[in-house]
Design brief:
By secondary structure, the protein is an alpha/beta fold. The chain has a domain of about 160 residues: 3-Layer(aba) Sandwich (Rossmann fold), CATH 3.40.50.300. The chain is built from seven helices and eleven strands. It has a seven-stranded mixed beta sheet with strand order 5-4-6-7-3-8-9, with helices on both faces. Strands 1-2 form a two-stranded antiparallel ribbon. Strands 10-11 form a two-stranded antiparallel sheet. The longest helix is centred in the first third of the chain and has 17 residues. The protein is globular, with a radius of gyration of 17 Å. The chain starts with a helix and ends with a strand.
């Protein structure tokens, strides 16, 4: 079977399994996550790319699992999958290094997840291109946290601008998880921090310890006078833009 025929068949299957959202879809995708929505004054922006940067690796990252994935970003992905289940929509996770660990997630939650397992960053970009052209998912997550810097630098910036042109026509929120700032076309850039120690992994409120800071925004709703704090502490700090 020709490659073009396979792509057409895949698009038809996606359209059948994941119907397009209603035309009355709001401009933000609500997540219900205080650590995220307090920082950006609402849900993830639809029709835009949001880059969430998890800089460096701390000692806590080694406790996230054998893959060494970032504890903060992995916890956030799990929470977003639960949000999709809770609000009855589908989320696509493009896994740049086949590192996602579904252990601990309820089987009912996983029924709302399309998990695309890639081994290279270039494969992830191609998968994102296909899914955004299809337009069936309210949320598309591209996880590149564990991809090597040399590999990521080989992605032309024109690819990110192409993805932005695709998503801006859709009621889709595209979230790209990275280790350092690299998506020049992102309309919203966030930095993920956490205040975890070893005991945090044994607690039930690990998500509340995540802290998200606005680094840059081209969205009028997310402005320089935004304030945020950790969800558990309620303190206020100026967002970094």
């Amino acid at each position: 079977m020709a490659a073009s025929t396979k792509i057409i068949n895949l698009r038809n299957l996606l359209a059948e399994r994941f119907p397009h959202p209603s035309s009355s879809t709001p401009s933000r995708l609500s997540t219900g996550l205080p650590c995220l929505e307090e920082a950006i004054r609402g849900g993830l922006p639809r029709g835009a790319i949001t880059e969430l940067i998890s800089p460096g690796r701390s000692a806590t990252h080694s406790f996230a699992g054998a893959s060494g994935t970032s504890a903060g970003s992995a916890t956030l992905i799990h929470a977003l999958v639960h949000c999709a289940y809770r609000d009855n929509y589908f989320v696509a996770l493009i896994d740049g290094r086949d590192s996602f660990d579904p252990c601990g997630l309820n089987n009912a939650w996983l029924q709302h997840l399309l998990w695309i397992r890639c081994s290279k960053a270039s494969e992830s970009v191609k998968a994102a291109d296909l899914l955004l052209r299809d337009g069936n998912f309210p949320l598309v997550i591209v996880d590149l946290v564990l991809n090597a810097p040399d590999e990521l630098r080989q992605i032309p910036q024109t690819n990110w601008y192409r993805l932005q042109r695709l998503v801006e026509l859709l009621p889709t929120a595209c979230l790209v998880l990275t280790r350092y700032e690299m998506v020049s076309s992102a309309q919203l850039k966030l930095v993920l921090e956490n205040s975890w120690d070893i005991q945090s992994f044994e607690s039930d409120d690990a998500l509340s310890r995540l802290r998200i800071i606005v680094k840059r925004s081209h969205l009028p709703e997310v402005r320089r006078d935004n304030y945020l704090g950790t969800a558990s502490e309620g303190t206020q700090k100026s967002a970094v833009i």
